[in-house]
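#struct-help
A.M.: can someone run this one for me? Single chain, 216 residues.
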Amino acid sequence: MPDKKVVVFVGPSLKHKQAKKILKADYRPPAERGDIKKTSQQNPHTICLIDGVFSQDCSVSHREILQTLQKNIKVIGASSMGALRASELDRYGMKGIGEIYQRYKQGTINSDDEVALTYSPQNYQPLSTPLINIRYNLEQATQKNIITQKQMEKLIQKTKKKFYPKRNYNQLLKTAKKHPEINHNQLKQFLEEYKVDLKKEDAKKALKHIKNQQKN
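D.P.: on it. C-alpha cells below:
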C-alpha cells in the first residue's frame, strides 16, 4: 500500500523554496517521460505534476499516468504540463486543479504553446513569459477598461505569433506602442501594479489542495 509520501514535479512555475512553505513534500525537477512511472514504483501516496518537459519524445506520457492511477496512487495536475494532462485524463481519475486546468478542460485553450516558456536549467528561473499569463492579464485589463476587447484580441494574436522564448511583457508593451489606439502608458501601469502570475497561483492552489486533503 502507498504511504503518505507526496512527490511534486515543479520548476519554473513555483520555486522549491516557496513550495516547501506551503507543503512538506519531495520536490523534484520538471518531469520527463518515464519519471512518473519510476516514481510510482516508490509507492507514494500522491504525485503532483506541475511542470514537465514539452517535446514529442520527452513529455510525460498518458500511459505512465494511467498505470500510476491503476496502482491507486493519486495523481494531481495543475499550472503547466500537469494542467494539460489532467484535462486529458481526469475522466480516468487524474485530478485537475486551477484556472489553467479549467481552461484546457473547457477548450478555451487547447495547445501546450499556452504554457510553454524557457527557463534556466540551473535554478528554473523563467526567461520568458507564458502566453496564458499574458492572455489572463490582458483579459483583466479589458475588464478594467484599460483596453478594449478588440485591442486585447489583437495583442494576444500578435503575441501568439511570436516564438514562445521571445514572449514577455516588454515585448507586449512594444507591440502595444505600435498601435496608437491602445493607451500604452495606462496598460504599462496596470501590468506593473496588478499583473498576476497565473501559473504560479495555480501551482500554489494544487499544493494547498493536497495539504487540505491530508487533514481529512
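A.M.: thanks! Residues 1-215 form one domain.
D.P.: also worth noting: Residues 198-215 form the longest helix (18 residues).
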